Amino acid sequence: MIGIALVSSISYAAGRAALRGGATHAGRTRMIQSVASAPVSSVLAAEPATHPGFELVKVEMVDEYTIKCATYRHIKSGAELISAQADDDNKVFGIVFRTPVTDSTGVPHILEHSVLCGSDKYTSKEPFAELLKGSLQTFLNAFTYPDRTCYPVASQNTKDFYNLVNVYLDAVLHPRAKRDSTVLEQEGWHYELEDLKDPLTYKGVVFNEMKGVYSSPDSLLYRAAQQATFPDNTYAVDSGGDPNAITTLSFKQFTDFHDAYYHPANSRIFFYGDDDPAVRLALLRRDPAAQAHPVACGGALPRRTRGGRGGDAHGDGQLAHARGAARRR
Ligand SMILES: [Zn+2]
User: Quick one: which of 261, 114, 105 has its CA closest to 179?
Assistant: First the structure.
């Protein structure tokens, strides 16, 4: 632990917000007095949790959102965690991995789909679909951006919320997809032959999804503009996957990508809401992957060689490829 630095109290924060609001001097004084005398929520008044496995880096009040934010570093894995205490029963968790790409095989997008197809502890083949219909979640999804992959969940019920967090943590760190190549075949691509007389075709959830994306003129324009703007780095290729390149992705490339980037040290984790901050730390602490030593996952975005991949005529034309949206297609 390297110290706590509370930058303001809640009543002071609200008073400053009132001053910024342009009220008259007398009005501002009254507002500050009334805010100052308002009871401070017990959630915000509580001291940030401590745990021997975590170093508390700093604590800040964020005036704009009336939250108390504690930033931690998990000592053994190097994971960075922000724990926001808020007087709000909409509890939120997210884990985000930095996943820059150097080609358009769509490996982060296919992995985003695949990790939610069962894990060591949660062996259902479709835990994502089960949680959508069988939990009290208020938000459940996953997103692939050109340089990162995000897994957020939310619930107003504390027990349900921790269940969701446990399923998502196990999904991203211990997915069935690492040991079962049929997940890549299902979510990424595979050959299909309906009848011996028919031609051999490609099928796959992401392959089909991206064929739809590549049929949209808006998407093509956005992707071409992005690629022209950033020709030398990860933004010049398509993290969502070019259908022409998706079918070159091997199982080894797929599992190597997970090994390289899906580690707590390469993640940013956040919690928000009125639940017990100590439980949040314990949840991550229990995961075996969190016991691993830090690995080197950082550094600058990988640069590409111009003209190195003639087939990559497409960048990422979407802000993000959302799993929920893909499922609805
Ligand atoms: Zn998708």
Answer: 114
pLDDT in tens, 202-216: 999 999 999 999 999
> Which residue in 47, 60, 80, 112 is the catalytic one?
112
Tell me if residue 209 is catalytic.
no
**How close is the Cα of 329 to the center of ligand 1, in Å?**
9
| Residue at 103 is within a domain | yes
What pTM was estimated for this model as a whole?
A: 0.79
Residues 112 and 237 in one domain: yes
Q: How far does the centroid of ligand 1 lie from the alpha carbon of residue 87, in Å?
A: 34
In this structure, the answer to whether residues 63 and 128 fall within a common structural domain is yes
Residue 31 lies in a domain: yes
> What pLDDT, on the 0 to 100 scale, is given for residue 11?
35
Task: Give me the domain span that covers residue 249.
Answer: 51-291
